[in-house]
Amino acid sequence: MPDGRADGRRVTHDDLGAWLIKGNADLVDLAGRFARDPRVTGWCVRPGYRARLMRAGQPVVFWASGSRGRLPYGVWGIGRLTGEPVPGGEPGSPWTVPLDLTVLPGPRRLHRDRLRADPRLAGLEVFRQPQAANPSYLTRAQFTALADHLPGAADVGSGATSAPAAW
Fold this sequence. Notes:
Oligomer: single chain
């Protein structure tokens, strides 16, 4: 189900833990881009009901995807939305969501194999539908489980206004 959850329900504010946005590190030099500047202030999302649910203050996780195995694909950063997505200039073009997100230094990034090994995270939508368009999501339970792997993530989910300095 491309726009819904594995149980057939659509994403709702009631069970939304965090948005998950993806970048393909095989197609773009994400490692080089983030080495120069780890701050992310905006990212493209697909127009649709999910983009219309996005609001300032909601947690967001950055997922680097790829298939070549040369990089530690998985969670590379965490932050918050700073506003609602803005439609692109042309009909059907991607929207851009404003962010306050910091990409973690390489050694702090969470490899997808580590997350897939956690039974609480093995069912992430990004694992079930890796080719799906942005944004993906984590449920509240999944975001809580992610926080166990990424100290400081719980602060984002609790309404803290900025990422902890440890990120």
